[in-house]
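Consider this today:
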Amino acid sequence: MAADALSRPTRGFILDAFGGPEVMRLAERRTAAPGPAEVLVDVEGSGVNFGDVMIRRGEYLRDQPLSMAPGCEVVGRVAMAGEKATVAPGTRVAGWIETGGAYSDRMLVPAHRVYPVPEDIDAAAIVAVFFQGTTADYALHRYGRVRAGEWVLVHGASGGVGGLAVQLAKLDGARVIGTASSEAKRAIAREDGADVMLDSRDPSTLAAAVREATGGRGCDVVVDGVGGALFEPSMRALAFGGRYVIAGSASQQPATLDVRRLLPRTQTICGFILARITEEDPDEPTRTLTRLCDLVRDGRLRPRYEALPLEAAPDVHRRIEDRTLTGKVVLVP
């Protein structure tokens, strides 16, 4: 059985250098056996995230090794398990590979980073809610503590995290203001349920527009995966007792704040990354991913995604950098 699992080679992208999308090269190599605490997964779909672009550029980690290729999330089936792994071959799982390289048709995944997923949901839909859906859920519920009737401001509302945040906030009974950089993207967010859409290219009018939309109250929760120039006006638009959640930094631009402004309005600001949550809470991300899959099955959550061939990865990176991508792209071997 082990010999059969290893007989087929692995096809996946590697990096020859840091740089533009052209530095990613699809290569074939011998399939390695899983170590004692690893599993070998036959990949059904690999997710593409903005962080992958940073990995490709060499900007993701200080002193990042060239061996760290793009791709950190997959959905597939366990083909072979190491002796200390508790997940059985044949199990369908979502896999988290912090060392990268997941644009591949087979992947070695640490056994503690695989999570069982349903059999009856399309792999691409599960990938679409794995990293981005759990990020949106944590931003709204664990840190934003959103309640029915509140106003939620979502930046990048047509993106992978933003679009799911819009839908989840509406399921909570909240009212949503979204921002996006084009009318086409704003139309997508409206389809997902956003009550008000604003142009993210004009931060100077953002605070006043949010105040007007909320009858002068301001927004109770901000889900910000963009940062940069949107931060300061969003803080000015934050209501008394408001919660500002930093869920990413797509702009890669800094933002500053005079923290004294938090005092009279009892506001909070926080940021998070998924790895820290799973370290603190052993039930995560399984619990949240399971709930999101249930919402997908029921049709209450509709992740937007494109399923494209594995070979399309360089072009997808170009679309991310050109800011023409909406929703999620899933690479299918």
